[in-house]
Please model this.
Amino acid sequence: MQDIREKILEAYHENEGNVISLLQDIEESFGYLPQDAIDWFSEQLDIPPSRFYGIATFYAQFHLKPRGENIITACCGTACHVKGSERLINSLMRELHIPSGEDTSEDKKFTVEKVNCVGACSIAPVVIINKEVHGKMTADRLMKEIRKIK
Model:
């Protein structure tokens, strides 16, 4: 972990980086923003941790908890909601044994994200599995896709 942090810090100094680019590099390297990494960079750069957390909690691209190996993004926009996205999400959470209030399976294999809109209303409901868009999704098709990954 130390080597990764040092490389990120070096790139930050070389590129006259800003806090957002630094957070992007941390997220890319670790898959999320570990607290100990934020604390370390805060100390190294003499930037209060609150500045990092303020930015990280403002932008949806940043994650403060470890995420799963497979990312499933479910659209919850109006068109998708009307076409049953909530039922899809509920069946997905049951299939993956993700407890209520959580978004990542205990084995860290899956993370389920809900987003407001993916801009593909004509093919609602939409589920994105590992960056691959699946439109007009049904519960049966979703479970088949998930079982392929498992």
